[in-house]
């Protein structure tokens, strides 16, 4: 999978371009036109400047690959965002182009807050997630300013609760883990050196807390996934050819119904495999970071991830075929 | 290269961690093996599908949870 260097706050959230607002110059080159207006987080945003643009694609070799068109943009509301559009491979008929907000590089004051939380912060201290405002926030937290803690919870809490929900199947567990993680973070504030963004540091703490909670749960021995891996004959040839999936399966996974089915299949994986999928493919940790989180070496992470993806492919296969036959 | 050898190192191929000579061998096998091409496509799609399936828009923290965390912090700090 292609990745770009992340400087801002990683969000990876879908955005919906407003129809008819695509930049015609890009479209004339056969590229997805950057939308002048789009919906994101329940609001309409207007792009006032495209700061830079670039492209990336996955390694070729098969017939299918994803090409992404990246743009760093400034919005009328004061956001500076890295957004991207995925161009679907040519063999996926009927595919749409999808747009995503990848990172928030800068944001207007209080952009992540709402209602009473925003008012509370306005009375005290505030700014967005710029380095300067993060330093302000850290100072406030270290001197025990409650408005600072409320701001931290309002800005980071929703995203981190979503992380906890991905790891822990029960809502109560997820909320308990988030509480533990924040308390651990509060205790660690004195020693936080600022080597990474506060949001990144908190993300790691939540992930670690969730993994510890999963380990602490009484578990049955894990089932083998060998039956979910591909079979080969003695000469190393495939026992049965793989029929291709039809339609835009990746786009289909974003629908509410299919997303729930895919999540159920991920949940069917034994925890050791499910966790590595969550860390690498969902939370986008690199191999070294995933190895640290799991307490295993990098080679073991790679092997486990490879087996997990193969097993998940097998589990998803009937779902995809059924969906494409409708 | 056999199909099994290709599948065994598919993650390294996808992550572009293979040396150039091995990568060329992979490409040569993929060029003549439709079944492995299909498997590679699906292998890549699985990661994307998993990621897509988990991209619910974050919802605000329940206010009760915010207050519980703040109270726990106060208690822990001995106030």
Short description:
The complex is a heterodimer of chains A (326) and B (79). Chain A is built from eleven helices and six strands.
What does the main sheet of chain A amount to? 6 strands, antiparallel, barrel
Most residues in contact, chain pair and counts: A-B, 68 and 53 residues
User: On the 0-100 scale, what is the average pLDDT of chain A?
Assistant: 80
Query: Which geometry of chain B do the CA atoms define?
Result: elongated
Radius of gyration of chain B: 24 Å
β-strand percent of chain B reads under 5%
Q: Return the average pLDDT of chain B rounded to an integer.
A: 89
- Our measurement of the CA-to-CA distance between the termini of chain A, rounded to an integer number of angstroms, reads 29 Å
CA-CA gap between termini of chain B: 68 Å
Q: What is the helix fraction of residues of chain A, given as a range?
A: 40-55%
Low-confidence stretches of chain B: none
Task: Report what the structure shows.
The complex is a heterodimer of chains A (326) and B (79). Helix content of chain A is 46%, strand content 17%. By secondary structure, chain A is of the alpha+beta class. Chain A has 11 helices and 6 strands. The longest helix of chain A is centred in the last third of the chain and has 28 residues, at 298-325. In chain A, a hairpin with a 4-residue loop joins strand 4 and strand 5 (80-87). Mean pLDDT of chain A is 80; it is low at 1-6, 59-64, 89-95 and 112-129. In chain A, 32% of the residues are buried. Chain A has a 6-stranded antiparallel β-barrel. The model of chain B has no long low-confidence stretch (mean pLDDT 89). Chain B starts with a helix and ends with a helix. With 79 residues, chain B is an all-alpha fold. The longest helix of chain B has 20 residues, at 34-53. Chain B is 73% helix and 0% strand. Chains A and B meet through strand 1, helix 4, helix 5, helix 7 and helix 8 of A and helix 1, helix 2, helix 3, helix 4 and helix 5 of B.
């Amino acid at each position: 999978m292609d990745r770009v260097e992340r400087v801002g706050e990683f969000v990876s959230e879908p955005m919906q371009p407003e129809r008819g607002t695509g930049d015609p110059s890009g479209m004339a080159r056969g590229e997805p036109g950057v939308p002048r207006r789009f919906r994101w987080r329940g609001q309409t945003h207007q792009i006032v400047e495209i700061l830079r643009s670039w492209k990336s694609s996955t390694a070729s070799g098969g017939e299918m690959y994803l090409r992404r068109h990246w743009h760093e943009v400034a919005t009328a509301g004061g956001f500076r965002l890295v957004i991207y559009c995925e161009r679907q491979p040519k063999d996926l008929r009927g595919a749409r182009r999808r747009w995503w907000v990848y990172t928030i590089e800068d944001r207007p004051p209080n952009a992540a807050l709402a209602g009473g939380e925003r008012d509370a912060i306005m009375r005290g201290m505030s700014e967005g997630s710029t380095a300067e405002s993060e330093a302000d926030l850290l100072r406030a937290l270290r001197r025990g300013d409650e408005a600072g803690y409320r701001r931290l919870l309002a800005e980071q809490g929703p995203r981190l609760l979503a992380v906890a929900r991905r790891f822990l199947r029960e809502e109560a567990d997820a909320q308990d883990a988030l509480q533990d993680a924040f308390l651990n973070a509060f205790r660690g504030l004195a020693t936080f050196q600022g080597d990474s963004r506060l949001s990144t540091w908190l993300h790691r703490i939540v992930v670690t807390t969730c993994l510890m909670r999963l380990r602490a749960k009484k578990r049955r021995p894990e089932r083998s996934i060998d039956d979910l891996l591909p079979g080969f004959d003695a000469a190393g040839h495939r026992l049965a050819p793989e029929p291709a999936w039809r339609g835009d399966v990746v786009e289909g996974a974003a629908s509410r119904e299919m997303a729930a089915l895919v999540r159920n299949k991920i949940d069917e994986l034994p925890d050791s495999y499910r966790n590595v999928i969550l860390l690498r493919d969902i939370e986008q940790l690199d191999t070294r970071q995933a190895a640290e989180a799991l307490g295993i070496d990098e080679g073991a992470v790679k092997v486990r991830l490879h087996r997990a993806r193969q097993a998940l492919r097998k589990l998803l296969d009937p779902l995809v075929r059924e969906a494409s036959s409708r | 290269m056999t199909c099994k050898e290709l599948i065994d190192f598919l993650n390294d191929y996808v992550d572009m961690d293979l040396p150039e000579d091995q990568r060329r061998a992979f490409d040569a096998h993929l060029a003549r093996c439709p079944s492995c091409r299909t498997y590679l496509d699906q292998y890549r799609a699985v990661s994307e599908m998993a990621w897509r399936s988990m991209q619910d828009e974050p919802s605000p923290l329940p206010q009760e949870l915010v207050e519980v965390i703040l109270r726990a912090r106060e208690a822990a700090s001995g106030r």
